[in-house]
User: Which sequence fits this backbone?
């Protein structure tokens, strides 16, 4: 009681502070239904990596299965050749036997010698026939052994191909499951972005695990895999005048890279561009990355070429998931130049 009487102002301040602390969300709390900002961003990035790895394994298995199918086809062709050769040998042996029967009528060799005009010539002919028969027997034996060996190889190849097909079926199912989870996580991430844009306030940088790749070039494309969509200067009902950048059609959550080294001079989460980042580079140029779903850098931060600075989305005035990329002579809109030839001059072909 004495404390309250002597320090009424201090008591009031303490009570207010306790009330604020009680009302503040705990670390990791978030808007209902949207999940932790850092958690969803990291989950999307992780699922991207898992999807890429699963796709790589599936493609490797598919190539291996194709090689096995080609090997089986080659073995089958060899088998067909062996069978044809064996059939020809059998036909040759049959013709010799028929010729012997016609010429000799089945008489013993002694009778042939007694009746022959030239017994020595007859003996030479018989030796030739026997040698031919022996050669044919050896050739047929080799052919039959080769055919058996080829048949075993073909059976092994077929079994290996079957195992590969089963493994590829499992890999395809795994990839579909990862992509399904990734799609759900993407839209959860976009939900967070929309909430930030509506509030006009960014959630703060989400620190993503950076890839191990170290670029040897000074400039890179802002996304790794993409399709070019709306180009600089194109017209349409979506823009008040002309399109001021180059659009990269990519799924929500695609890692967005700094095109070059520089300083982050703007991180904004409202307006037509939705969530956007602007980086100032040496020489006075600036690059803008807009319609993001999340940012991974803070204003004032230095970035390197290829560094992940955020994740793509469809925030702001956007009709679908893509990255809007601009090159400007000032940090502000209205000073854009065509980014495609600008990047080309810096060694980046889109």
Assistant:
């Amino acid at each position: 009681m004495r404390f309250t009487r002597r320090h009424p102002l201090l008591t009031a301040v303490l009570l207010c502070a306790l009330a604020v602390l009680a009302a503040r969300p705990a670390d990791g709390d978030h808007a209902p239904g949207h999940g932790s900002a850092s958690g969803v961003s990291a989950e999307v990035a992780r699922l991207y990596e898992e999807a890429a790895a699963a796709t790589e394994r599936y493609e490797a298995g598919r190539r291996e299965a194709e090689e096995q199918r080609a090997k089986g086809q080659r073995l089958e062709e060899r088998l067909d050749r062996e069978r044809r050769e064996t059939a020809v040998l059998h036909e040759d042996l049959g013709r010799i036997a028929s010729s012997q029967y016609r010429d000799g009528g089945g008489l013993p060799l002694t009778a042939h010698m007694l009746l022959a005009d030239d017994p020595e010539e007859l003996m030479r002919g018989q030796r030739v026939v026997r040698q031919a028969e022996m050669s044919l027997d050896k050739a047929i034996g080799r052919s039959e052994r080769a055919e058996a060996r080829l048949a075993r190889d073909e059976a092994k190849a077929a079994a290996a191909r079957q195992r590969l097909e089963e493994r590829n079926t499992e890999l395809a199912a795994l990839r579909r499951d990862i992509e399904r989870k990734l799609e759900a996580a993407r839209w959860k991430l976009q939900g967070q972005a929309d909430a930030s844009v509506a509030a006009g306030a960014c959630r703060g940088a989400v620190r993503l695990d950076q890839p191990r790749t170290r670029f040897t070039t000074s400039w890179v494309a802002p996304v790794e895999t993409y399709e070019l969509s709306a180009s600089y200067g194109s017209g349409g009902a979506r823009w008040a005048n002309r399109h001021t950048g180059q659009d990269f059609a990519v799924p929500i959550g695609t890692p967005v890279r700094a095109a070059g080294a520089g300083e982050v001079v703007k991180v904004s989460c409202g307006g037509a561009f939705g969530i956007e980042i602007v980086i100032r580079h040496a020489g006075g140029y600036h690059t803008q990355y807009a319609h993001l779903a999340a940012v991974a850098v803070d204003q004032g931060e230095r970035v390197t070429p290829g560094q992940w600075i955020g994740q793509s989305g469809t925030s702001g005035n956007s009709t679908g998931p893509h990255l809007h990329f601009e090159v400007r002579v000032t940090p502000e809109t209205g000073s854009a130049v065509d980014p495609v030839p600008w990047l080309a001059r810096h060694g980046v072909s889109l």
About this structure: The chain has a mean pLDDT of 79. The beta strands are 227-228, 246-249, 255-257, 262-269, 275-280, 286-295, 302-303, 308-312, 323-328, 336-337. The chain is about 55% helix and 15% strand.
